[in-house]
Design brief:
Largest sheet: 5 strands, mixed
Structural class: alpha/beta
Strand content: 15-25%
Number of helices: 5
Radius of gyration: 15 Å
Distance between the termini: 14 Å
Length: 164
Amino acid sequence: MRILGIDPGYAILGYGFVDMKGNHFQPAAYGAVVTEKDLEMPDRLKQLYAGLMELIDLHRPDVAAIEELFFNKNTKTALLVGQARGVAILACVNSGLPVYEYTPLQIKQALVGYGRAEKLQVQAMVKTILNLKEAPKPDDTADALAAAICHGHSAGYINKFKGV
């Protein structure tokens, strides 16, 4: 199963394609779709959509896992990230992908075993699980890969529970 993990953002949208065979994970591709800060928001969203559609077409995932928003005190930023998240979900749905959503707490729990783990701990586990030489950069990329791994663990558990 090829899983697309997405860490939504309007300046940087992290993505990671992970192949899961049995209970083993292998990175297929990862990186970030970056928008220019001088662009108007509609153009940034268009760029995110086009970039993600191109990546989905190129890497052909079976499912998508996206991180749910963690709301902070800055409402404006949360709304802008929410728009980018909506565009990412739309790209996945328009590509025929089932979309699964995970909270940051669920992702940290799946990778580190502790829902309040620090970002560096998650990055270290991504590096270890995917047998990478170094933690992926930018952080958004590592977070996207973490979302994909989280889904892989969840999908494996769901399939085992269903007797698949």
